[in-house]
Every structure is written in structure tokens, then in C-alpha cells.
Amino acid sequence: MCDFPEPALLARPDVIAMPHIGASTEESEENCAVMAANQLMDFLENGNITNSVNFPAVAMTRTPGTWRITFTNDNVSGVLGNVLSVLAGHQVNVVDMMNKSRAELAFNIIDVEQQPSAAVVAAIAATGHVIRVRVLGSELL
Q1: CB count, 10 Å around CB of 47?
Q2: pTM value?
Q3: Is residue 58 in a domain?
Q4: The pLDDT of residue 89
């Protein structure tokens, strides 16, 4: 058995290639816990998603002085355009944005110049195929 099979060993009938389980050491488990906590904090503070099983990886640097809107939606055409129309209709200026999808799910990060009103958030939430909306304030910067 070996957990680091060399190409020459892979075809040998007397070798059993096993997955490397280096993550089972005490040090690696602690590092993984710290990494998971940091990624959770980054999501809560910035809306960034790293190493998710079900969501796309998406990260965008915060634009100073802006408010951040994140929303999850079904990955169908037109949703992002409809949300941008909601923002434009309420005179909310978009400073930066990112949209990523993974299979049937999409995740969006939008930085806007001013705090979105409850009416804006409600209109985004009411947009067809939007699943969840979150607003992160500029005071976190």
C-alpha cells in the first residue's frame, strides 16, 4: 500500500494506491477549523463564498463607503437584469458587481453607493427566481 502513488506504481498488481489522509493529523484539523472559521467570517462580513459544496466560488473586494447587496437566485436568464432594473428604478447606483453560477444556482454581489431602502430590498426579493437577499452595511469597512 502507498498513499503517494508514483505513475510507475499505478499499473502494478502488487500495489494498492490509497488516498492520502494527511488531513487527519491534529495540526491539519486545527488548520482546517481556522480556515473554515475565516471563510465563514468572510461570508458574514463580505458575502464572499469559498470552498462551498453547493454554491459557486465568488469573492469581490469591498468598495470603500458602499453598501453591499448579495442575492441568491435560480440560474435562469434575466434575473440579474431584472434586479439591476429594480436598482435603476430606485436611483440606486451600482459601483461594482459580480455574478457566478454553479449548476442551477447563481450568487451575486453588488456594491451600491447608498444604503438600499426597505422598498428596494423588498423589490429585489420579489423579483422572479430570487431566493434570498442580504444587505451588508458600509460600517463594516
Answers
A1: 24
A2: 0.80
A3: no
A4: 98
